[in-house]
Amino acid sequence: MGVTPLDLYQISNKIDADRAHLNKYTYLGYKFNFPHYRVLSLKDVMLNGLHTCLPKHLLNFISEQGEVLLIANIISGYIPLLQLRSLHGEKAFQAVGSQSKLFYGQGMLDKDFKYGDPLLIQEGVFDTDIMRGLYPNCLGTMTSKITHSQFEVLKLMTNRIILLGDDDKPGRIGTKNNRKKLLDAGFQVKLIFQYNGYKDTGEALGDTLLNNDGISFNNAVRYYKTKLNNILKEWDYDLR
Question: Is the pTM value of this prediction over 0.85?
Answer without folding.
Answer: yes
